[in-house]
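Reviewers of the previous submission asked for a worked example of the structure-prediction workflow described in the proposal, so we include one complete record here. The input consisted solely of the amino acid sequence. No template or homolog information was supplied to the procedure at any stage.
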Amino acid sequence: MRYKLTFVAGLALGYVLGTRAGRERYEQLRKSARQVSQNPAVRNTAETAAQQGRVIAGKAFHTVSEKVGDRVPDSVGDRVRSLRRRNAGGAGQDDWGTSNT
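From that input alone, the workflow returned the following structure tokens.
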């Protein structure tokens, strides 16, 4: 799905940059893109996908942590522990500004 979305986005960008239709067509495309992005179904689907990604990443992290154990350098282990403590405080957002809801 991600590759299809990337392809479509690239196709749209190429069309916008390559077209000679002018500003009017650009504004039409921009308005359509804004309408799609503000659609509640699209927003809900994007949030659901993000949430599932966080869950899967958490499971992967747990699995890797169990298998790797003490074989990581101390500096990496210290950094992971500090990030865990910081996120345990319930900051509400990660380093990229997205919610952890």
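The radius of gyration is 20 Å. We consider this example representative of the routine output the project will generate in years two and three.
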